[in-house]
Structure formats: C-alpha cells, structure tokens
Amino acid sequence: MYASYSEATLLDALRAGDEGAFAEMYKRYSFRLFTVAYQKLKSREAAEELVQDLFENLWTRRATIQVEQLDHYLFSAIKYRIINYIKTQKLRAGYQLYMQVSVSEKNTETEEALALNDLTAALLAGMQDLPEKSREIFQLSRFEHYSVSEISGHINLSEKTVEYHLTKSLKLLRRYLRDFLLAVLPILFLLK
C-alpha cells in the first residue's frame, strides 16, 4: 500500500507518526544513501552508521520537520553527515598525533630529568672523595661562581694554589664520573 504513496503523502503520514510510511521511506532511500556514503568514506560500517543516524533523526523529529522534497532533504542530509564525519575523523587523527608526540616528549623529559638527577648525585658523591681544601675551592668556583682571585682572597691561598686545587678536583671528578657513566650506560640502553 505505501509503495504507491507519493513523497508528499509519505511525509504527511510520517508527520502523523505512521510507522509504515517511515518503513517505506527507509526502503526507498536507505540503499541509495548508503551507496553515496560508502563511495565517499570507503567504510561500510561508517556508511551504515550515517544512514541509520539520518533515519533515526528523521523519525525523532517527524512531528516538527519542515521538508518539502524528501529526496532532496535526505541526500542533502547525508552529504552534511559525510562532511561532518570526515571532519571528525581528521580532528581525531590530529588529536591522536598530538597525544603521541606529547607523550613521547614527556617520556623524554622524564628520562632526561632522571639522568640529570643521577648525574648530580654522582657528582656530589664524587665531591665527597675530594680532599677537603679541594672540595671547598671547587664548590666556591662551580656552585657559588667565585673567580679564582675571589677564592684566593676568601681562603688566603695564592691564585696558583687555587688553580692547582681546581685542576686536581676536575681531574678526579672526571675520572669518577667516567667510571659512573661506564657503569650506568648499559642500564640506560636496556631501558630504551
């Protein structure tokens, strides 16, 4: 019976809540709308979802919908759903890429912070092995940023003696840190 209805008659019946009219609309247009969506999206699931969403929306808004030409309305509606779907997919892909890059940077930052903490701890431990006077001079030079002449005046030693202690400290710390890095590097490579 509904197969003989014109579009105008089907629309009137739809507005009155006639499920048979709705089923006839679905029968007439669903495959053609699916074909349009599938050709653009190349995804059966996405095309089916958009067509189902379109008819669900048509049924939900049946009492208030202002449609004069059913076919024009349905094909325009599927076109906009396809455009919105593509926009959403691009946005989602961009967000996923952003998250991958962001997580990767955070992981690198964490590893770098850990490496810096380990290196600082090793430096401080190495400084404990320095003779007391060399340690004091090294701290004034490297942590408090005094010049050689300022250190010389501060601890009443000649500038040559201060330079000797700095050279000796750097040599001992370099050796200590080299041994530390040789012990730690294989572990760092295993973590990556």
UniProtKB/TrEMBL annotation:
Q: Which domain of life is it from?
A: Bacteria
Which InterPro entries does the record cross-reference, listed alphabetically? RNA_pol_sigma-70-like, RNA_pol_sigma-70_dom, RNA_pol_sigma70_bacteroid, RNA_pol_sigma70_r2, RNA_pol_sigma70_r4_t2, RNA_pol_sigma_r2, RNA_pol_sigma_r3/r4-like, WH-like_DNA-bd_sf
Pfam families noted in UniProt: Sigma70_r2, Sigma70_r4_2
GO biological processes: DNA-templated transcription initiation
UniProt keywords (A-Z) are: Sigma factor, Transcription, Transcription regulation
- Span of domain RNA polymerase sigma factor 70 region 4 type: 122-173
MF terms in GO: DNA binding; sigma factor activity
Domain RNA polymerase sigma-70 region residues, every copy? 25-90
Family as reported in the entry's similarity comment: Belongs to the sigma-70 factor family. ECF subfamily.
Q: What is this protein called?
A: RNA polymerase sigma-70 factor
The scientific name of the source species is Hymenobacter taeanensis
